[in-house]
Amino acid sequence: MVRDSLRDIAYNPLLDTSQVINSIVFGPNISRRLNRVLGINILPLGKVVCTFRCIYCPLVSTLTCISSWKDFIKYNWSSTNVILENLMKTLEILDKIPLDSIVVIGNGEPTLHPKFDEIMHGLRKTIDLLSPEMNLAVFTNSSLVSNINVIRGLAEADYVVAKLDAVTEELRAIINRPHKDIASLAEIIRGLFVLRRELVDRNSKLIISTTLIRTPIGYTNMENKHLHRLLKTLEELDPDQVHLEIPPSPYATAIPPRRSEVVRVATFLSEVLGEDRVFILAGTTVPISVRLIKKAMANRDDLYMKEEVRISDKLRILLIESPGAKTRVSILETLLGKRLSCNSIAKNLGLSWWAVQRHLNLLLESGLIRSIKFGKRTLYTITSMGVTVLEALKLAESEESIILKLL
Ligand code: SF4
């Protein structure tokens, strides 16, 4: 159903991936990768359908694992017209709210839709007509890319984020637990190569997303043998970026890696793929490149002064010694990986709007945070300098490695 008022399309800072989506169009949200986005869910409303049952999937308890839409025929698969009509009406309602991308994502695997290529073509045309400055993005688990129609549909996007957690059948069976009728890994990787060529021809981007994980009985995609095979595949596939993801919380079937392990994997991959192509996504933070991680480590000595005083005098006064310093540190912590309004920060910290605004102005002046215009609202987020300084403060207390804290 098309939502008909701005109030219904209230700003939601980040999509909660554990919630089941009940509408075709949802958001706007702030995406970790794509900034201000409007989501499009093309799967049956309120249902979770996927070709995988990943051991770390937050929706796994409500998910129906299928290999084709025909296994789920009794449910209503939205038609292309209804999807496009919903999008157009929502864009009309949102009018002047700036958006960076339309993202096809939702309850499960979007490429299962029987008219996936037609929908993507329609979305492409709609965006080009109404808001050519916006990008079209799609998230897929890659399981159906051996199908040429799926490749055609994906190739309509400016950004394709494609999952590749495992490059051996054995690990794929353990981590992604695909439906028994899903194509072999070799066929899927071949499909990714075809997709890559299509995207290059259109100047669009392929991002490979790998969730790093271990099972309680010791299987993991982070062991050296698997990493070498993954690196070989990635080197040949040559994606624009590789995103290494950490699941937000442990599950009975899956244990997230330690952050130091993730940095080890990222560094290993970046030695061949390059520091600007390998990113880490942890929690709600935006992707952090290996280059930035290395820079933060190198800058550590610049940030820390010798002896007892470890950050510059100005920042020491702002964050340690002057009245309100603790509140300013709390604001920085609250903004880690988030973009929040003054109001939300005030609510989070139990402070008045005026008090928070005063602190925000001081933090803005010092370059530790920055502001982002979102329609009529102003959101705030921490800068990389802010992250590094915050970590410096914590390091001063704990002497832990800055890199572990950065993520
Ligand atoms: S591919 Fe995504 S939706 Fe499907 S099971 Fe895995 S995490 Fe869940």
List the helices and strands and how they pair.
Blueprint lengths: L24 E7 L3 E6 L7 E3 L12 E3 L14 H15 L6 E4 L11 H15 L4 E6 L7 H7 L4 E5 L5 H7 L9 H17 L3 E7 L12 H14 L3 E6 L12 H15 L4 E5 L5 E2 H14 L9 H9 L3 H11 L4 E2 H8 L3 H13 L3 E6 L2 E6 L1 H15 L3 H5 L1
Parallel strand pairs: 2-5, 3-4, 5-6, 6-7, 7-8, 8-9, 9-10
Antiparallel strand pairs: 1-2, 10-11, 12-14, 13-14
Helix pairs in contact: 1-2, 2-3, 3-5, 6-7, 9-10, 11-12
The structure holds iron/sulfur cluster (SF4).
What would you note in describing this structure?
A hairpin with a 3-residue loop joins strand 1 (25-31) and strand 2. It is globular and about 65 Å long. Helices cover 41% and strands 17% of the residues. The protein is built from 14 helices and 14 strands. It starts with 24 loop residues before the first strand and ends with a helix. Mean pLDDT is 85; it is low at 1-16, 301-309 and 398-407. It has 407 residues and is of the alpha/beta class. It has two domains: 6-294, TIM Barrel (Alpha-Beta Barrel), CATH 3.20.20; 306-406, Orthogonal Bundle (Arc Repressor Mutant, subunit A), CATH 1.10.10.10. Helix 3 (148-154) packs parallel to helix 5 and helix 9 (313-321) crosses helix 10. The protein binds iron/sulfur cluster. Iron/sulfur cluster is lined by residues 50, 52-54, 57, 59, 63, 108-109, 141.
The SSE order reads EEEEHEHEHEHHEHEHEEHHHEHHEEHH
Instruction: Specify Rg, calculated over alpha carbons.
Output: 22 Å
CATH class of the largest domain, anyone?
A: Alpha Beta
Give the oligomer, counting copies of the same chain as homo and different chains as hetero.
Answer: single chain
Q: What is the global morphology?
A: globular
In CATH terms, the superfamily of the largest domain is Aldolase class I
Count of extended strands: 14
Per DSSP, the total helix count is 14
In CATH, the topology of the largest domain is named: TIM Barrel
Biggest sheet, spatial arrangement of strands: 1-2-5-6-7-8-9-10-11
Q: How many domains, in number, for the residues?
A: 2
Question: Biggest sheet: strands, sense, closure?
Answer: 9 strands, mixed
Bound molecules: iron/sulfur cluster
